[in-house]
Amino acid sequence: MERLQLLENWIKTHFPDKSFTLSPASADASFRRYFRATFNDRTLIVMDAPPQQEDCAPFVHVAGLFAAAGAHVPTILAQDPTQGFLLLSDLESTTYLQALNGDPDKADCLYRDALAALLKIQLASRPGVLPEYDEALLMRELNLFPDWYVAKHLQASLGASRKAELDAVFKRIVRNNLAQPKVFVHRDYHSRNLMVTTPNPGIVDFQDAVYGPITYDLVSLFKDAYIRWDEERILDWIIRYWEEARTAGLPVAADFADFYRDFEWMGVQRHIKVLGIFARLYHRDGKAGYLRDMPLVMEYLRKACERYRELNPLLTLLDGLENKPPEAKVGYTF
Questions:
Q1: Torsion, CA 186, CA 117, CA 237, CA 172, rounded to 10
Q2: Quick check: pTM over 0.90?
Q3: Is 76 part of any domain?
Q4: What range does the record give for the signal peptide (predicted)?
């Protein structure tokens, strides 16, 4: 309550003669909170990022980069980094997830807009302005899986030989990830962070952006933890992106089969990380809602591991952890 009072007082310093009401605007997996300030003539969004746990500076920095690229992000109207407050323009309240659940027929149109915005961001990419998605960060994310999903969530122990196998697979995955061309990476470019707006989409939650593998945001978008699409449809969207990226001059692989393999392997890294994060959100932070999203993420992970011989040890490990019999292998040919 004390922070909420501080937040209200800060807003009043910017609008001393206007009354407003505050209501929660969105849930967040971090310590950040978002509120909608409703005035008589408009609404604004207020970010509360406690300085002890969060830093507003990356949000401000990335907002500038993405806006300069032509993407639709919130305008920063006022900021107080000492207190951890930002006042933002309101990108409305309809997420892609809500719109797609309400009318799945909108998918092609919405994803076309999302890809167009992503291409703008990627075309504006340059090294040295965002943190590198380097080996240390990729491995730190992967290790959330044994630490939180296996040990905490499943209450399982890997043992020395299994741990060695997992480490070997992790190194293989990271080697692929690091070999991919690099661009600006939102890092959570999915249906909960894309808003239905004009121009479309409105993009939020980009403060963790990095400079890294070109396929990463495509994985976030199309192998989304919160909504399921048929693999054939995902493939069609990926082909569309690849063709548009090549035309635009982005450094995607010349052969689509190579590009799709990169996409799948990047997905394996993200799915492993997400399982660890969801387990941590539940066991450390008491956020049980993410448990219902775990099965889809695990399905993505298992299907990719079934398709690539080099990832079979990970599939065997998953089978052992879940006491499942091995499944038939499925492959793609292009």
A1: -20
A2: yes
A3: yes
A4: none
Residue 161: strand, helix, or coil: helix
pLDDT on residue 1? 63
Last residue of a domain, one of 63, 89, 115: 89
Q: Assess whether 13 and 126 both reside in one domain.
A: no
pLDDT reading at 329 higher than 80:
no
Residues 150 and 288: beta-carbon distance below 8 Å: no
CA 319 to chain centre: 27
CA angle 264–270–272, rounded 5-degree value: 105
Domain range for 129? 96-322
**What span, in angstroms and rounded, lies between the C-alpha atoms of 150 and 127?**
35
Alpha-carbon gap, residue 145 to 168, rounded angstroms: 14
Do 111 and 217 fall within a single domain? yes
% of the chain residues with pLDDT over 70: 95
Q: Which residues pair with 79 in a beta bridge?
A: 86
187 and 105 belong to one structural domain: yes
Q: Is residue 331 part of a domain?
A: no
- Distance of alpha carbon 269 from alpha carbon 170, whole angstroms: 8
Residue 12 Cα distances to 237, 266, 282, angstroms: 46, 46, 36
